[in-house]
Every structure is written in structure tokens, then in C-alpha cells.
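Sample intake sheet
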Amino acid sequence: MTGDRHFYVETFGSVRLSSFRLGRSPFADRYVTDQTVFGLYCGRLYPIKAYPDEDPVPQYWKLRNGVMLYDVPEKPLEIIGPEAARMLERVLTCRVGTLAVGRARYGIACNEDGTVLMDGVIMRLAPDRFWYVKANGEFEGWLTAHAMGLDAEVSDPDSRVLQIQGPSSLDVLDAAIGGGLSTDFRYFHAGFFEIDGQTLWVSRTGWTGEAGIEIYCNSGPEATDHDALWDYLLACGEPFGMEFSSSSSMGIRRIEAGILDNGTDIEPDLTPYGAGLGNFVALDKGDFIGRSALARADRSQLLFGLVCATAAPDAGMQVHLENGPVGHITIGTWSPSLEAGVGYVRFDRPLPGGDWLGKTVSLIDHKGAPHPATVDTLPFVDKEKRLPRAEWSGGRSG
């Protein structure tokens, strides 16, 4: 983005923000109108709604039954060098050294006290080259500090990301590479693909709980021709009904899928155990930041799903038990698939003598009215998480 160009953002009809010094998407000219509503994530603007009163439900069903294209703001950081894996083992709670080239893994970084600092996906592009696709917030400085004294370098590859999500997403990828997509391209696999003459890193990941891929663009001497890529992908997706969507439809689906947002759902005082992410902590590997605290930490889970038949949970709503507050909602929505309200509830403390799971509580709406609700496991839809793991059979999927 050039420094003299101003790109205005309207939020809730009350704030207009110049995009000077903000990350304007290189794909923006392909979809932006004067009605587009933007959000800010990782210092990057992204489309929340195509227009202020957009109904996301039609696009949601196209995502669930077909395929959709999203311009997303997630941001990879590159860690490269002979001791890159060693540094990442020190910073992340998961195992890094065992990650094969062409594979991805969910990775949490903790503070010394065991609370979650950052979460994201670690991918191995080569033996000494990794990308960490981080959540919102500053993390490059943290990685750089912990790379000091090691033969490892941290940098920002300035890669913008597109997500193609839905049951037909692999059909679109197969068409985009000219056919021959391997049946071994499975969930959390990744690799370089030739797409319309451009070599791009593609991972089988996403933020929807559906089958999907993410395409990472290049900067520098091999910079991606973003306009050509956008037009080509839409042309490849046309036979499968692929359309562009703002993130509004993705937002509903990510809640149904139980995908957590760091800093909002995973609040800063939560450990991985409190957030229900204890399975991603490898205490039996070598030392890492926060390990000592996590070894001593309370293992009680404090973040759960909440289902309500009569109201959609919304951020800030209180949750009561026996006429007293016991927690609050971090985010929620109305689930078109379940025809019920769903959201995440953060409890203030463990339930004395029991477990929150399955408990009937009261959701207090913004007008103070109570609604019966049930504490549930995540995800709400596709409990076994089979949808994103759908195998590519070499033909039209879904």
C-alpha cells in the first residue's frame, strides 16, 4: 500500500479509519465497495461484511454445501536456520523436531507462568525452514528475542493468505493445479504447488471446520501476481459454484466448529488446560517456556461450549447458576445447522465437587432476561471433526 493512499473503514456506522500504516489486502480491489465493513487483525484489514446489514446465512449454507473463497488476515512468520527447530521447541508447547517437511501442527506459546501468550499453526517448509501462522497480537519480537545466540533468524515473509473452504475445496485445488492432486494430501498436510504458473505454498487447514485449503502468497523477487491469482482461482472454482464471501459466514462456522480466538476466547489469564487445550502440551518433551508452571498448574477446564434454544449468546453476556454469576460469554452466534444459539462460556472457577460439562445454567441476555442453557463440549457441529479430515478420492468431493 502506498503511503499517500487512504482507504476508509466504517465500523458499526460510527468510526471511519484511514488505512495509512495498516495492511491493505492486495486482493481488495477485486471486491471492495464503499459499503464494505472491515475489521483489523494482525495489523491487516479484512472484510467482515460486504455491506453493513449483510445476512451471512445464505453464504454460510454455500460454505457448508459447496465452496467459498475468503481473503483472510492471518500472518505467517518465518523461522529459518540450522537451529530453528531448537528455538521453536523452546518457545512452543508442542513437539517441533518431529514435524516432517510438508506437515503442519497446532502450536501454543506460553508465558513463564503457563498462561497462553500466542497460538497458531507451525508448518515445516524445509528441514531448516518453518512458518508460524500466528493469531492476532505481536509475536515477532518474542521469537526474535528467543532466537538470540542461536543460528536461527526470524522474519516477516509478508505473505497474504486466501482460504478456499467447503466440501468442494479440494476439487477447486485440483482444477487450479491442472489435475492430479494426490490422494495423500490430507488434513494438516502442506506443500508447494504450481498454480497458473506461480509456485505457492498451500496447506490443508482453515478456520471453518470444513474441508479446506489455505494459499500463501509470495513477496520479494518472486512476488505473487495477486490479481491474476484471484481471477484464476475464481475461474477454476466457477464449475463448483465457488464465490467470494466476507468473513461473516466463516465467523458462524468457526464457532460451530469450536475454533478459539486467542486473546478473546482464550483470555490472557488462561492456561492451555483452562482453555481445554491440554492435549497440545507435551510436558514430556524437553524444557520450554512455561513448562515448570504448567507441570504444577490446576488442570481444570474453564472454557466450554454453551447451547441455548431461546437466545443467541453474545460477548459479555453473563452466565448464572442458582441466581449467581459464574461466568461470561466470550463470543456466540445463532447456529443455522442446530437451530439454536451457541457460544463459548468462560467460567470464573471450577465447579466445586463436579464438572461444568452437561450442567444447566442461565444465560442472561443484554436486557437481563434469563434463558436456560446447557454446557457442552466443542465443537458443536461435527463432534468427531470428520469434515476437515475428508479424504481426497481423486474425483469431485462432497
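Comment: Residues 1-12 have pLDDT under 50 and may be disordered. The CA atoms of residues 112 and 289 lie 6 Å apart.
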